[in-house]
Amino acid sequence: MIEKIACRIFGKIVNPYVDYFENLKANLRKSGIKASVDEYFCSILFYAVIALVLVMIFGAIFFSMIMTEQVAYSYTLAIITGLVTAVLVFIFGYYYPSIKASGIQNQIDKSLPFAVFHMSTSASSGVSATEVFAMLSMRKGIIAEEAKRIYMNVRTMGMSLSDALQRAALRTPSMAFADLLWGMSSIVTTGGSIEKYLTNKTDTFMSHYRRSLNDYAKAISLYTEIYITLIIVGSLLFIVLLAIMSPISNVDVLFLQTFLVFFMIPLVSMGFMVLLKGISPME
């Protein structure tokens, strides 16, 4: 509904320049957002204009209340705030597909070694290449969803497996997964051995996964030393220094110590946990 309204308003402006946004088109495809380039671009323009109008109205009311003697300046400040907000909304909307595609790529790359191992095991049991994707679709995750789409394209839409693989390779944001699908498409076309190909790919991905685990273990050791040095030792030293300086200063030492122990240290600890989770090669 919103896309239609946005296209009616901005369609004539955006349509002549659609060809200049090939990167956006690719990111929309890889992120799974089901919208054309012109529809999506018109939508983010629409949201940017809405943000501009709302921020200008409420900003004018707010700034005029706190700047009663300088009403003209309050309106100017509201216009500037609205313009900045509109630009930020537009930038976020433009780059959102690439951010989402990067998240999908990260999930695929983490689960790909185990998915390929599953495919190799299925192929070694003697099932056809199409049935390999049917069995893979029973797993959980993005790769399983992609495998289901490939299988449905072959069984329901009547598409050849090679074409279904190529289409999936074009829309996935993961280069490793795309390379796997292109290789399978070539094997299917030339009549090669899927089982041998998947076995070789399993060895390659598992070797890379073991190296990633080794690098992750080293990173954990480094971050642990940083955490202990800066957070644990540093906090204790800061608390001791505050206790020593309290008789000769007017600083509220108890408040600072309470803030450090109950707020600062937990927040930084959570940040380290998020960091370690983000760089983890495991699913």
**Series of secondary-structure elements, N-terminal to C-terminal:** HHHHHHHHHH
Question: N-to-C terminal Cα separation, in Å?
Answer: 37 Å
Radius of gyration: 27 Å
Strand content: under 5%
State the shape. flat
**Integer count of domains:** 3
Helix content: over 70%
Biggest pleated-sheet summary: none
Mean pLDDT: 85
Helical segment count: 10
Unreliable residue runs: none
Structural class: mainly alpha
Total beta strands: 0
Can you put this structure into words, describing what you see?
With 283 residues, the protein is mainly alpha-helical. The chain folds into 3 domains: 99 residues, no CATH class; 96 residues; 73 residues. It is 83% helix and 0% strand. It contains 10 helices and no strands. The longest helix is centred in the middle third of the chain and has 54 residues. The radius of gyration is 27 Å and the shape is flat.
